[in-house]
Amino acid sequence: MMKDEVKYVLNGGTLKTTTVAGLEFPAESPEAERCKEIRGILDDYANRTGSPKPLSIAVFGPPGSGKSRCVKKIAADLGGKYASLRVVNLSQLAKPDDLVKQIKGVFDSTPTPASTPVPAKPIPIIFFDEFDTPLGEKALGWLRWFLAPMQDGEFLDGDKPIKTEKAVFIFAGATAVSLKEFEERAKLDQVAYREKKVPDFISRLRSFIDVKGVNEQDKREKREVRRALALRHFLLERWTKKEEKNWEESKLEIDPERVESLLSNVHFIHGARSMEALVEMSTKREGEEIQIPSNELTKIHVGRGALDGKLIGISAGLDGDKSGELLTGITSALLGEGAKLAYGGDFEENGTLHKIVQALEDAPPDFFNREDKRILNYLGTPSFWRPVVKAAAEKHKGEVDFQELKTLSPREIEDLNLPRDQWFRARPEKDENGKEKESYQSNQHLAWAISLFRMRVRLIEDIDALIVFGGKDGESWGRFSGVAEEVMLALAFRKPVYVMGGLGGAANEIGKLLGLAHATVNPDECLKDVMPITALCPPKFKRAFAVPNLSLPETLEEMRDYFFSHSITAEGKWPWNGLSAAENRELFRADISLAEAAGEDRQNAVQKSRANCVDTIVKGLSRLEWKKSAARP
Fold it and tell me: What's the rounded Cα separation, in Å, for the pair 317 and 505?
């Protein structure tokens, strides 16, 4: 059933909203409060005597959030004290001279008498759109050209000054969704942060507004309400005459299930512009409901979430019970954000992959039919011949894309004297007393080590980021701990890594080596020794673990040194994952037991730890485009 607060979309039910300068916001929303504040500032500025410096205001928001519309509505509502809005899009200008040409003629050279209480002519409003666009090759290169006009009211046309007198400068950003994000992104390089004059620019602002988009969640309000307001506006614009711009009188009807999906499940790829496009593409027959399209064109505008198109690797070992609640929370959140998940390893009952498939049950349904599956399972030789894996592949073929990789060549199978086209073990099975039931066969262990390595190479090549927790530290069917090998490859391929050590295991040891623990550790004390399978390699298999153009560790000692040298403090070697060093360390230390020791209820502690991990990882993934990763070594 549709939530009460958005029922008006269907039947004209009531909803508290605030209208400011022709814009409708949820009641008591940050935008509504800030718009009122800005309106007061503009009224006060218009009535000041003398010729003060220009008034500078910034507007931020995601693409399609309505920044330009917000600015234009505020300007249009100001009345005769202000002139019509003059728009200057900086992304279309090549050099500062082009900017001067754009504003030339807006200001004349006749100064306003200092005693004039109200300006004799309307105050100019110049809207600098995409002010944070690069100038040539310089990021944020336009900022320094605005400092003098903002502070002293003067542009330079060659050697000739152009006095602005009273004027309002409105700056709209193109890259950051908020002023806070604008600062955070600029601070990625502290030296450049000051060289680009970011602090000087911000200090000259007298107000700002962050316009939230239709995709953003906010603890103070529900996203459905914001979306409902936008949807109502677009429906009225599309399907009513000018004199009928009232929902209660329009008598428009629309399928409740489609509306609920639009308001709660989907991600609008281009923000409100995508919602508007869907409404414009809608159809309606006399006496029937409005039909929102669900076809190939819809794919341009609607996705699964902000992480749609991202493939995230999950590295957590086979045992899903040990990582249960954290695994469920993280995978559910990632699927809810639209990501696809990849896991390398067999399908075990109640194991990691099984838990991931279960989490899929809670993922929002697609707005339109999509063929791409949300879970990928990477399997090497001989995993996909295992009866339990074959049965799982058949049972879950609707949800999981099983990637069967032929990771051993026919010649390697022959040289290693392996069973053909059937599953075999890497290590002897043990009885209830821990005693091995049969003799150890190094050829089978070596085959598994090669196969697992190659499967993991393919997985890491495909994914956009790797999330790591738990995993066995010690006994392995490969040459190293599987989690350790996946992290090693992720670092080698410059893929973002998120390491959580709260569950212990291999992830905890890896995190210590990567500098995520409280203090520096002795590398020789991290990660347990396993059977040195590479030492048993016949000469013809020495290059079986090679990857073109990469120099990778071959022994556990080399692995430890590799992690140690790729520490989060190692400049240029730790791949950017969207989080600061402090945030990465906080994520690594997230531990249910710490909360329990403080006397918290276990269930609350679990939920709190899980929520913090999920929020931090999703935040990091959403920031990946902030900074380009260094080139692959």
Answer: 9
Residue range of the domain that includes 134: 30-210
Q: Are strands 154-157 and 160-163 parallel, antiparallel or unpaired?
A: antiparallel
On whether residue 570 sits in a domain, the answer given is: yes
The encoded tokens of residue 282 equal 């809608």
Whether residues 455 and 387 fall in one domain:
yes
- CATH number of the domain residue 103 falls in: 3.40.50.300
Task: Kindly give, in sequence order, each residue whose CB lies less than 8 Å from that of residue 583, ignoring residues fewer than 6 positions away.
Answer: 616, 619, 620
Q: Which helix (H) or strand (E) holds 500?
A: strand 497-500
Which mean pLDDT values do the consecutive 10-residue runs of the chain (633 residues) have? 46 54 65 82 84 87 83 78 88 89 70 52 89 87 90 83 85 90 85 85 92 78 78 85 64 79 87 91 85 82 92 80 73 91 90 90 86 94 93 92 95 92 86 78 90 97 95 81 94 96 89 91 84 69 90 90 92 90 91 58 72 87 73 36
Asked if residue 575 lies in contact with residue 491, where contact means CB atoms within 8 angstroms, the answer is: yes
Going by C-alpha positions, the residue among 367, 302, 300, 304 that lies closest to residue 338 is: 304
* pTM as predicted: 0.86
The rounded distance, in Å, linking the Cα atoms of 255 and 289 is: 6
Single-letter code of the amino acid located at 120? A
**What does the block give as tokens for 346?**
């067999």
Tokens matching residue 211: 């316009």
